[in-house]
């Protein structure tokens, strides 16, 4: 069975500071990994995805994530936080066979202080 | 380019009432899913479908039913609403094959009182 662990349910950074949101996964097969963002009262929007090509993945809004197989991690970073980045972020792993459903982490709420 | 459309956006139900959450997608995706989102818990899979006429249970199916008579539509039925079903419900779809992401609807916020 797959699982995803997101360390830190709340992260607070200052505007302009580095954003680092942590995600560790477990999977018995090579995973597909995703980061989604959810703004208040909205659905989930894809930030970026890892699908076994480049290990450093660039997404929208200046976010990127690095797949590290040895650490089973897929941490999300952004060099400089903007107020508009305040949202909830979910890491997810996909089954690449069968039902192909997503298994989600519990989410990290990012606050950006002025 | 509507994507995944869910209705209603908000609903309050009394205990024991029934309702259907509607979900439709216009991307011709084979796979469709229903998730529920509870605070601090991420999203949990309720039911899924790999194509018209084929549905199966996810991790938290109790109290729910689904059908998939067409590729486009995947309604979720609550027969006897309970307070434990107070949640935000998301429908999602994924195309067949490859390493593609899921596309989500805007969600239905359901309160059972």
What would you say this structure looks like, in words?
The complex is a heterodimer of chains A (about 110) and B (about 110). Chain A has about 110 residues and is an all-beta fold. Helices cover about 0% and strands about 50% of the residues of chain A. Chain A has strands spanning about 5, 10-15, 20, 25, 30-40, 45-50, 55-60, 65-70, 75-80, 85-95, 100-105, 110-114. In chain A, strands 2, 5, 6, 10, 11 and 12 form a six-stranded mixed sheet that branches. Chain A has a four-stranded antiparallel sheet with strand order 3-9-8-7, with no helix packed on it. A two-stranded antiparallel ribbon of chain A has the order 1-4. Chain A is globular and about 45 Å long. Chain B is mostly beta strands and about 110 residues long. Chain B has strands at about 5, 10-15, 20-25, 30-35, 45-50, 55, 65, 75-80, 85-95, 105, 110. In chain B, strands 2, 4, 5, 6, 9, 10 and 11 form a seven-stranded mixed sheet that branches. A four-stranded antiparallel sheet of chain B has the order 1-3-8-7, with no helix packed on it. The interface of A and B includes residues 36 and 43 of A.
Most extensive interface, chain pair and sizes: A-B, 25 and 25 residues
Which segments of chain B are poorly predicted (pLDDT under 50) over 5 or more consecutive residues?
Answer: none
Report the sheet with the most strands of chain A, covering strand number, pairing sense and barrel closure: 6 strands, mixed
- Strand fraction of chain B equals over 45%
How confident overall, as mean pLDDT of chain A?
92
The tally of helices of chain A reads: 0
Rg for CA atoms of chain A = 14 Å
Quaternary state of this entry equals heterodimer
The total beta strand count of chain B reads: 11
Residue-averaged pLDDT of chain B, rounded?
94
* Global shape of chain B: globular
- Termini separation of chain B: 36 Å
Could you say which overall geometry of chain A the principal axes of the C-alpha atoms support?
A: globular
Q: Tell me the distance between the termini of chain A.
A: 41 Å
């Amino acid at each position: 069975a797959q699982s995803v662990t997101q360390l830190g349910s709340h992260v607070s950074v200052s505007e302009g500071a580095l954003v680092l949101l942590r995600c560790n996964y477990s999977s018995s097969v090579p995973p597909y990994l995703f980061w989604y963002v959810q703004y208040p009262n909205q659905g989930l929007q894809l930030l970026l995805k890892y699908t076994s090509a480049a290990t450093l993945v660039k997404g929208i809004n200046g976010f990127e994530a690095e797949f590290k197989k040895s650490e089973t991690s897929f941490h999300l970073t952004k060099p400089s936080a903007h107020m508009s980045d305040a949202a909830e972020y979910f890491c997810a792993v996909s089954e690449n066979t069968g039902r192909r459903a997503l298994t989600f982490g519990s989410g990290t709420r990012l606050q950006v202080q002025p | 380019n509507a994507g995944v459309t869910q209705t209603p956006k908000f609903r309050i139900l009394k205990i024991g009432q029934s309702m259907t959450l509607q979900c439709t997608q216009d991307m011709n995706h084979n796979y469709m899913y229903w998730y529920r989102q509870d605070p601090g818990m991420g999203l949990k899979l309720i039911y899924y479908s790999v194509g018209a006429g084929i549905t199966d249970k996810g991790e938290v199916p109790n109290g729910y039913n689904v059908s998939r008579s067409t590729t486009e539509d995947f309604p979720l039925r609550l027969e006897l609403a309970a307070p434990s079903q107070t949640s935000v419900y998301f429908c999602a779809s994924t195309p067949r094959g490859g390493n593609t992401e899921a596309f989500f609807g805007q969600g239905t916020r359901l309160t059972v009182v």
